[in-house]
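Entry for the shared binder. Reason: the reviewer on the internal report wants the predicted structure included alongside the sequence.
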Amino acid sequence: MKLPGITEANRRWWVLATMAGSLSMIMIDQTVVSVALPTMHRDLHLSSTGAQWVVNVFMLLLAMLVVVGGRLGDLFGPERMFRLGVGLFVGASAACGLAQGEVWIIAARGLQGAGAAMMVPATGAILINTFEPHERRRAMGIYAGSSMVFLAIGPLVGGVPTQALSWRAVFFTNLPIGLLTLAVAHLTIPHSKASRERTGSFDWRGGTALIIALGSGSRSVSAASCRA
């Protein structure tokens, strides 16, 4: 099955659009919650510390796990990790939209960060594998530039549905976008087989030490921001 307009000649640009769109979804979620936070604070009876963690836990888990996501992509294929990451991100977004309390929303935001950590390194690897060397600079420029645009407009994107509908709409918006991303990715990104050529294994000790180190530093920053 092919989408109308997709050919072998332009397939790589469809892949670029899919990767840029998924990264933009992550960028928006970094800033969109800040706009909806006052309403969430009231509806979910968040404590002051809990409200800060709703914002910070996303970036905390993303920073802690992105290296792990990259290594797992090396072992099992970036395409597979991308699909798993999008699936986790979409599921976590639904959980955020359905949240009924402080612990629920913080845990769901953490899962969003974990899904993003699987997606970010995979998107870059997929683009590098898709484009020829002479086109990679242009592709990566479009990829990074478009995500920065969405990072900047995140507050606007969050403000409109919050005012018109509910803060929950901020998270539910990720569902159709994420499902569309998965559908387009299914039709444009090659399905990598379980590779027998991949060598090595995951360094669980090193990975755990890295996660603890990054988590300790990030928690210190988050704690400082909470006190502020």
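Summary line for the report: Residues 59 and 176 are 23 Å apart (CA to CA).
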